[in-house]
What does this fold into?
Amino acid sequence: MSALHLGVNIDHVATLRQARGTNYPEPVHAALVAEQAGADGITVHLREDRRHIVDRDVYLLSQTISTRLNFEMAVTEEMLAIALDVKPHFCCLVPEKREELTTEGGLDVAGQLDKIRSACQRLADANILVSLFIDPDQAQIDAVVAAGAPYIELHTGRYAETSGAQQAQELERIQQAARYASSKGLIVNAGHGLHYHNVQPIAAIPEMYELNIGHAIVARAVFSGLHAAVADMKQLMLQARR
Ligand SMILES: CC(=O)[C@@H](O)[C@H](O)COP(=O)(O)O
Ligand SMILES: NCC(=O)COP(=O)(O)O
It folds into this structure.
């Protein structure tokens, strides 16, 4: 079983800033507090519409954090140019719809293999580690291998939205996908919609390398402070591994 890492997604610190067009709260400040509290990495999603994170955040974070920056991006020429300029540690390629409230599904790697393979190659040539954000689906995992990305991030959104028997079924899909991906040599991350009450079954999956968690941590920080919110989440994750 590998060590389990926590990537803290700070998109919604920026959501609060953009709501009023102020210069606070500052995402860099949030990233540094998260690192002090035990975050192993910082994740941001630069959306096409710049609804939360904006370009300067990505540049500043890459210059200031001391863990690893995970840059979530749609597979567009605009985002590829930014990634190749910033050179984050990781790029996670995600699907994006302008009108969506949040990321709705995984990237269809199998359905656009040439495009994704070429993006992976360009990022790898710049020494950026690429992760593909996919649904827990064997055909998509096979396509990731064909695309040449070393990491996947399994979309846990459906698991997070369901309950009871349906959630148990989703958990099983994620467990099977993690096992299959790992047998193919991929490093397995997961994320989306994870919170303090649903994280442990996902954290307990032995193949998991990193969980990326944002909304729930930022929401809890309103009441308990960001340091405690990150530390509590990390503790829950590590507890699930014992
Ligand atoms: C790709 C993914 O699952 C999320 O991390 C993504 O960042 C969601 O975007 P929002 O933060 O805009 O909801
Ligand atoms: N890739 C998932 C992520 O970064 C965080 O998603 P969420 O916890 O904000 O739903």
The first strand starts at residue 5 and ends at 9.
